[in-house]
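Quick one: structure for this chain?
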Amino acid sequence: MAKPGKRKTEADAADQAAKDDLLAEYNARRDFTKTLEPAGKAGRAGSRVFMVQKHDATRLHYDLRLEKDGVLKSWAVTKGPSLDPDDKRLAVQTEDHPLSYATFEGTIPKGEYGGGTVMLWDRGTWAPIKGKSADDLEDGHLHFILDGERVKGEWLLVRMKRRPSEKRDNWLLRKLDDEYSGSSEGLTGKYLTSVDSGRTMDEIAEGKRAGRTGSNRSGGKKPRSGGRKPGADGPLPRHQPPQLATLADTVPPGDDWLHEMKYDGYRALVAAAGDEVRVFTRNGKDWSEKFPGLVDAVKAADLGTALLDGELVVLDADGRPSFQALQQALDGSASGEAIVYYAFDLLTEGRRDLKTLPNIERKARLAALLPGNSPVLRYSDHVLGRGEALFDAMCEKGLEGVVSKRADAPYRNARTKNWLKVKCIRRQDFVIVGWSRSTAKGRPFASLLLGQYDGDRLVYRGKVGTGWTMDAMEALSAKMRPLERKTPPLDVPKGAAKGVVWLTPKLVAEIAFAELTAEGVTRHASFLGLRADKDAKDAGVETPVAAAAVAEDAAKPAEAVKISSADRIVFPDAGITKGELADYVRRAAPLMLPWAARRPISLVRCPQGRQKKCFFQKHDSGSFGEHVLAVPIVEKEGEKQDYLYVEDAAGLLQCVQMGTIEFHGWGAPVDDVERPDRLVIDLDPDEGLAFEDVKAAALEIRDHLKDTGLVSFPMLTGGKGVHVIAPLHPQADWTKVKDFASRFARAIASAEPERFTATMSKAKRKGRIFIDWLRNQRGSTAILPYSPRARSGASVAVPIAWNELKDHDSGADFTIKDFDKLQRRAGSAAMQGWGEAEQTLPEL
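Got it. Here's what it folds into:
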C-alpha cells in the first residue's frame, strides 16, 4: 500500500507533467540552440501575472499573455489593445507560453518561428471580475481586470466560432467603459519604448544595451537625455498657501470654465525633488509619514522637481470618495484603506514657477507629467463647458459636487472667484465649542455645539446630534477632554448653555445640514468627521455667491476689449465679419491658450480683411493694449528686441482688434526661450498633389519618429498641409533640435527623393512634398492650434487624432463657424492627451 507522502509526490509529478504537456507545442516549434527564448516548463499556478509583448515578426502585433494553470495563455492582437470601448480588436489565440517568457525581450533569429524583434511593452497582474472565474476561458468568454503599468481597467475576451479553414481560435478583445477608457491610440500610439529597458524596437533589434538615454516616457519612468542628471532638477519646492474656491449657488455658465469633480477628502500639496518627497496639508503641516504609499508612488513616478496641488481621498467599494473612510484610515480604526491622491494642479516644474500660466495649460502640463498608470497618484480630469451636466451627474451618484475654474486664470495663493465650488448638499466646516451631556447610558455626549468665525468673531451656529458611531463618539470624546474650560468661548442664546461642557475652540468638524435658519443656526445637521487638516480660523462663514454674476465679472477683461468696426467684412467669400472672428477667438480662447499663452508669437495682421494687404508682426510696437505683453529676446546681432506674447483671452482679443487673423508661436515659452518644448514637421505639398499624398506622408513621418522613440500628433493646418508635432521636455537647446530636425528630414528625402524634398527651393519641390524642418530653428514659428487662417472660408488649424486623418479631405476641413463641433471634439476620448508626452530629444 502506497504511503500518503508518496501518493502526494506522485500526484504532484502527474500535475507537473500535465502542465508541461500544455507547452508541448511551444517547445516543438522552437530550436533552443538558435533562439534565446526560454525552454518551456510550466511554473507555479496562481501568480495571475500578465504581460504584453510588442512583436515585429511577419507583421507587427502585440502578444497578450495571461497566467493560468502555471502557463501563459497567449493571443496575438493585430493592432494592439485599444482604450476605446467601440474598438473590437482581433486576438488570435496562439500556443501557451512558459512563465519564464514573461521577462523575455530581444530578437528571435530570422527563419525561426516568430522570427523578429520582441519588446516587453507592459506587465502587471490580472484577475477575473468579482463572481467570475479564469475557467470561463474554456467557455469562450472572459471578463477580467488588468492592473499593468500601462494597461488598466476592465476588459473582455470573446471567442468567435471557428471557420473550417481556420487552424486557431479567433477572439475579440474589447475595453469596457470605465475610468481608464480613452482613445484608440491612447496606448499603442503613446508608449513606444520597453516598460523594462526603455529601448525602442530599433534599439532592441540593434542589440543596444538597456538603460538608453532615450525619449518616450515609459511606465512611469522619466526619460533621461543629454546632460540631465537623474532625479531632482531643482531644490525641493516649499509649501505655499493653496488657492481656495468660493462657494457658489450654481455652476457658472459659458465656455470659459472647466469643471472638475469635487473630491470628498483632504486638500494636500505634494512636493517632489527626485527621491525627496513631502506631503503638506493646506496649512503647511508635514504629513509625509501618514501617507507612505503616496510618497512611494511619487518617487516611483520620478517627477523630477515639482509641486502638485490635489486632494487625498479614500474610495469606497463603488469607487466613490468617502470622507468617513478617510477619517477611519487616518485614525487607524480601519486597516488596509488605500489612500488615493487626485492631482488637479501643477504649481512648479523644475525651477520654473507655473502659477502665472493659464489654468488649462497648467493642467495640460500636469497630465503630461503624471505617469497615468499609478493606482495611488492620479490625474483629476475635467470637462470644458457643460458644467451643469457634470454637476447633475455628480449629484445623481451621491457625490459632493463640482469645482468650476476659469480656464484662462492664473493660480493665486488665496481664496478667489476664479475657482467656484458648487455642492449637491450643504456642507461646511464648523468649530466645536462645547458638548451637552447625554442621559443615555454609555453615551459620552448627546450633541455638539457649533460655531463659525465671522472675521475675528466666533458666532454660534447651533447643535449637531447625529452622524457618528459609538466608536467615533469615544474617539471624539477623548479629543475633547483636554480642551474643556469653564466659560463659553462665544455668545450663546439664552437656554442653549444649559448642561454644556465648554471647549477651547480648536477642533474643526465638517457638518452636513439642510439650511441655516433666520437666527443663523443649522437645521437637520449631521456630523461627517473632524478636519485635522484645518485650523479653527479656517471655519469661516460661507455664503454662496451668484455664479452667473461671477461668470459675468470674470469675463469682463475679455469683454472689455472693444472690437471696433465689428461689421467690417474680413472674409469676403464667407461673409464673415471682424465681430464674428472676435467672437470665435473669445469662445475658443480656452482651447487656444494651452498652446498660445506665454509663448513668443508672430501675428498675421490684415487690417482691411484677408484679401487686402496682410503682414507679419512679431515685435511689440506699443500699440496693442495692456493685455498684449512683451518679452525682451536677444537677436542674432546681439541686440534685444521686445517680442509679443499673451497670457489670456483679453490678450488674444486685443490682437484681433488690431486686425490679427493668424497666431503663430515659437517652439519655446517666454520663461525659457532657449529650450524648445516641441518639434514641428510641416508637410508642405507642391501644387497639384492630392491631400491623400499628404496624409500618407504624415503617417510615414509618424512611423519614422516612432522609430526614434518620439510620440507625435497630427494637426490640420487650416491650409493645404499637415503638421506632425512631437512634444519635448525642454532640455535640448535650439541647435540640437534644429540639427535633429534637419537630419531627420534629409534622411527621409534621400530615401524617397521622388516623393520628398528637404530643400525650400520651389524648383526642387516639383511634384514633391517639402518636409519643412525649418520651423525648429530659433525665432521661427508655426501656426498654433485652433488659430484662424487668413484663407478662403475662414479655416482653422485643428488638432486631430491619427485614426481620424483618413476621414479628412483637406487640411482646411474646419472653419471658425464650426466652434461648437471643435469644442465637443476637444473634450472627446479621441483627443484625450493630444500633444502631451513626457519625452526628450533622442540621438539620431
